[in-house]
C-alpha cells in the first residue's frame, strides 16, 4: 500500500490525485454502475454487487439506486437499514451506519474536508474524518452530514438539514446548521 493511501486511511492530510486511489475509484465506479443498473439485475445479484462494493452490509439492507460513493470499502451498514434514491456517501474515511436506519432521498454523508490554507488547497490537500450514524436514526430528504459528525441512536434529522456537529440520542434536529428543537420521548403525537 502506498504512502498516500496510508495517510488517507490514518486520517492524515493526503493528495486524492494518486494512482492507487484512482484505481480504487475506478473499481468503485464500475461496481456503482453495475448496482445502479438495478433493473437488469436479480435481487441476489444486486446484493452480491453491494457486498463487493461496501465494507459490510447487514441483513435486509435496501439501497435504491442511484447510489454513489468514493471508495465503498469504508462503508458499513447495519441490518434492516433503508437508503432512498440519490444517496452520496463520500467515504475517504469510515462511514458507519447502524441498524434500522432510514435515510431519505438525496442524503449526503461527507467525510472529506479540504485545506483552508489557499496554497495547500490549490495543490489539492485533503483529509477525511469519519461519520457515524447510530441505530434507528431517520435522516430526512436532502440531509447533509458533514465530516466528523456522529448522530446518536433514535435521533431524527429533518429534511434539508445540514448537520455540522454531533447530535445526541433521541432528539429532533432541523435547519442549517442543524439545531435540536426537542427531545423525542417515544410518545406519538
How confident overall, as mean pLDDT? 94
Which CATH top level class fits? Mainly Beta
Distance between the termini: 54 Å
Which structural class fits the helix and strand makeup? alpha/beta
Q: Give the fraction of residues assigned to helices.
A: 10-25%
- Total count of domains: 1
DSSP summary: helix tally: 4
Report strand %: 25-35%
Q: Please give the number of β-strands.
A: 19
* Radius of gyration, whole Å: 17 Å
The CATH topology assignment is: UDP N-Acetylglucosamine Acyltransferase, domain 1
- Per CATH, the architecture is 3 Solenoid
The coarse overall form would be: globular
| Elements, N to C (H/E) | HHHEEEEEEEEEEHEEEEEEEEE
**What strand order characterises the main sheet?**
2-5-8-13-16-18-19
- Largest sheet properties: 7 strands, mixed
Characterise this structure.
- The protein contains four helices and 19 strands.
- The protein is α/β, with parallel strands linked by helices.
- The longest helix is centred in the first third of the chain and has 18 residues, at 19-36.
- It is globular.
- It has a single domain (3-183), classed as Hexapeptide repeat proteins (UDP N-Acetylglucosamine Acyltransferase, domain 1), CATH 2.160.10.
- Strands 2-5-8-13-16-18-19 form a seven-stranded mixed beta sheet, with no helix packed on it.
- The protein has helices at 3-9, 19-36, 43-53, 118-123; strands at residues 56-57, 62-63, 67-69, 75-77, 82-83, 87-90, 95-97, 102-103, 108-110, 112-114, 126-128, 131-133, 138-139, 144-145, 150-151, 156-157, 162-163, 171-174, 179-183.
- It is 22% helix and 28% strand.
